What does this fold into?
Amino acid sequence: MAQQTLAAGLPARIAAQDILRQVLRKRQPLDDALDSILASANLEGRDGGFARAIATETLRRLGQLQVLIHTFATKMPPEHRAGPTLEILLAGACELLFLKVAPHAAVNAANELAARDKNAVHFKSLINAVLRRIAREGQAVIDAQDAQHLNVPDWLWSRWCAAYGEAATRSLAAAHLCTPPLDIHGKLSPPDFRNSILLPKNIVRLHEFGRIEDLPGFAQGDWWVQDFAATLPVHLLGDVRDKTVIDLCAAPGGKCAQLVAAGANVIAVERDSVRMQRLKQNLERLHLSAQLIETDMRDYAPVERAPLVLLDAPCSATGTIRRHPDLPWVKGAADVNTCADAAAELLDAAASMVADDGVLVFAVCSLEPEEGPEQVNAFLADHPEFQREPIRAEEVLGLRELVSDGDLRTLPCHLGEKGGMDGFYAARLRRLG
It folds into this structure.
């Protein structure tokens, strides 16, 4: 059936259903699924935004929605026979209770989606009955749920409670349920944008925005996107003007742009060719330049060791769940262990690039101790030529709650009154001269 003959909103719902299926059944990252499916569906404007909202909010509230559906459908059909029945129910319930779509529109669209699938059509009456009950009775069920706990899988909830305590875990879980703002850096100021505020270091925070590419100044290269927490590791390097900084695992380039804009001579190392191309394009748009080295950092040997080295290591990225709500459902504890093992090797390689009396800043956008403080403690035990250089509150804009045992530790609930921030860990290590 041609897209133009479909009822209003149906192309967006078809795309959202496909996105959820790719994420939940094939473990494809949400960003990748969004990019590929929205592009192939040729959705733009409101339809593209609606599809994105359905898929993202469904994943953000997945734990609640799963319990809700099983409350009203105690016996679900086998997955291999039901086709996209579960995705239709999840998205439909999300529309009704969290996106506040009119009940007749959400239920009728779900029925149409079921009718279009050779497997789900057999369960159309189930879908219709469950969603109609949810429209009438679902809000009371949602209101009685423990939303913070339900939307965090058990494997993460137990880890965070052990690391931070239940009160802090509940606070960061609550932060994950809020749509994150957009932080931008550059030449523009709050008056240039609607519904924006100014954070320290002239970071402009937007609470309402559409396509990033359509915002004022993007095409002109006036600014780049970088979460407030992600800017802090660069501050730990001190004054970088006219100094050489090796930026390892540099793509997509937020920290690289931050360093170059501050006057550093940056050597940016990235092994992935696609990510390196993105880094190059980002720098070109911003009219900034750095020496780009496409290679595995473990194979890179600089001509001379540098006074400043930054390693923002690949990790489980659990600190970015508010932006990537698929992560808790597509990853597990084994991924944390794998990332921790890999980071240890990268940290050793980065250390070899640091000049005497030079500084290495190690950072990860993870909330997991194995990828942060435990990683650094193990490194220091094996490398007596390095010592931890404690971070002071004034170096992180006076925000004392961001300093833990001399290291940087941000949680999504920090700066909560202004919209929170990503979860980051960073340590500053100095090579003894």
